[in-house]
Amino acid sequence: MKVSIVQVPYPQPGKAVECLQWQMDLLNNIEAGSTDLIIFPENANCTGYTDKGNMIELINNQGAEFVEVLKESAKRINCSIFSGLMTIDENGTLRNQLVVFPPDAEPFAPYTKVHLVEPELAKGIVPGDGAKVFEYKGVRYGAAICFDYYFPELFVEYAKERIDVMVIVSHQRQERPEILDFATRTRAFDLGCTVLRAAPAMYSPAVGGKSMAVAPDGTVIADAGGEPGVLTCEIDPEQRFTRPASFGEPDKVIDYREALLLSRSHVDNK
Asked: Which of these, 105, 152, 172, 211, is most buried using a 10 Å CB contact count?
């Protein structure tokens, strides 16, 4: 599977509309048939908002235009697009969600951010209620959004469900790159599956960025570093981390995730 992860430039103050235009221009320049999956970071329809009022204004105007471009681009490119979006329903309820744009069907939102930060709670954003596995085009996906990244128990639930690919869409504008690298690789190792992470590039290489694709054994497949752009690579959703079952058993090779799940089941059943 060919995957394209978009590392959006985080807008300077007052430049949120320019960031949305950057994203739309990028989509319009991607050639048809050139990729299977495109991933945008968290809040891609309102990145750089200043307050709740400005956030809602962006969502309903230029952000809505961006969403239409996502729909049309999925069809034109003939690929799937996953994007972190702030959504508003007919009752005015705000949710921070991962939204999937198929090339041949209506968009759907399989996951809502569970662990909200205080500024989100202050805006009345409603949290999700746990890990949500979704199967799409034969692949079992898990999803996490930004602050979810720091809660290992969420990823334990996904490991139990034997997902194939974890998608993490983030803002994480003040975390150090070396921590983002370490934590993303750790999540892949814990899950035993490929992890795809999309986040914005910040003004300084000392923080943020690090959109990545990481293999099940924690090996970095591709890394965007701190610069804006598109990270494109090949992944195998069926890849697993395998190793000898135990010391002295080199001929007994097992799926490492299955070994952990088996051991966990022994503990849970005591």
From this structure: 211
Residue for token pair 């490991």: 159
Dihedral sign from CA coordinates of 223, 80, 28, 113: negative
Tens digit of pLDDT for each residue in 121-178? 999 999 999 999 999 999 999 999 999 999 999 999 999 999 999 999 999 988 999 9
| Contact status, residue 74 vs residue 102, Cβ threshold 8 Å | yes
Q: Which residue type does 16 have?
A: A
Burial readout 60-98 (b: 16 or more C-beta within 10 A, e: otherwise):
eebbeebbebbeebbebbebbbbbbbbbbeeeeebbbbb
Distances in Å between the alpha carbon of 149 and those of 12, 49, 64, 138, 195? 25, 22, 27, 25, 12
pTM: 0.93
Beta partners for residue 94, in sequence order: 88
Q: Which amino acid is at 237?
A: P
Measure CA of the first residue to CA of the last residue in the chain; give whole Å.
Answer: 41
**Percentage of the chain lying above the pLDDT 90 cut:** 83
CA dist., res. 48 & res. 58, Å (int)? 10
Q: How does DSSP classify residue 157?
A: H
> Which residues of the chain register pLDDT less than 50?
none
Q: Which two tokens stand for residue 247?
A: 């010391």
